Amino acid sequence: MIEWLQVPIAYLIGSVSSAIIVCRLMGLPDPRNQGSGNPGATNVMRIGGKKAAAITLAGDALKGLIPVLVARLLNAESLLLAAVVFAAFLGHLYPIFFGFKGGKGVATSFGVSLGVSWLLGFITLATWLLVYKISKISSLSALIAALCVPVYSWFLLKNSSLAAVFCLISVILLWRHRTNIRRLLAGEET
């Protein structure tokens, strides 16, 4: 039963906001009060440039990757692994350390997928890159990659617990991007 402590630990790791920390360390404005108000890599790029955004992106991916890798190293069974995946992701969206106001979850979802399976992570990244190369729209790339992950996970992992959690993550990512979806449909998304 002690192995289930990995779930709240994953949530706490996910709750560390890379965007807010990077902005504080680099003397930038709080991303929750600037640009889109979203504490994520895209908004950090708007207010602080590519270097700050790259560090934020890496931090957000790592906080998804690390708890999942630890769970795998500890031979977590599939239900526990799925719970760790979801807890790290949920921590990013609703961080206890930052008033439960987090980012949209794209980089952290990539991190957890990479932690579950390197192949799953790389195929997801390849999907994002392909869509971005064609469209030049980050949010569209993230949405299409998010929609593909449950399908990829089902065929690659053949694990219903993990496929179910990736379906749930995809639904949440779509919900968190609902304003982006409206702008995409209106042809206003940059």
How would you explain this protein's 3D organization?
- With 190 residues, the protein is mainly α.
- The chain has one domain (2-186).
- It is 74% helix and 0% strand.
- The model has no long low-confidence stretch (mean pLDDT 94).
Topology:
Layout (H helix, E strand, L loop, with lengths): L5 H9 L3 H8 L15 H8 L1 H24 L4 H16 L12 H11 L1 H18 L2 H20 L2 H17 L1 H9 L4
Number of strands: 0
- SSE topology string: HHHHHHHHHH
Please give the largest β-sheet.
none
Helix content: over 70%
How many discrete structural domains?
Answer: 1
The portion of residues forming beta strands comes to: under 5%
Number of helices: 10
- What ranges have pLDDT less than 50 throughout 5 or more consecutive residues? none
- N→C terminal distance: 48 Å
Radius of gyration: 16 Å
Mean pLDDT across the residues is 94
Give the structural class: mainly alpha
Given the C-alpha coordinates, what overall shape results? globular
Descriptive key words:
globular; 190 residues; 10 helices; mainly alpha
Short description:
With 190 residues, the chain is an all-alpha fold. Helices cover 74% and strands 0% of the residues. The protein has one domain (2-186).
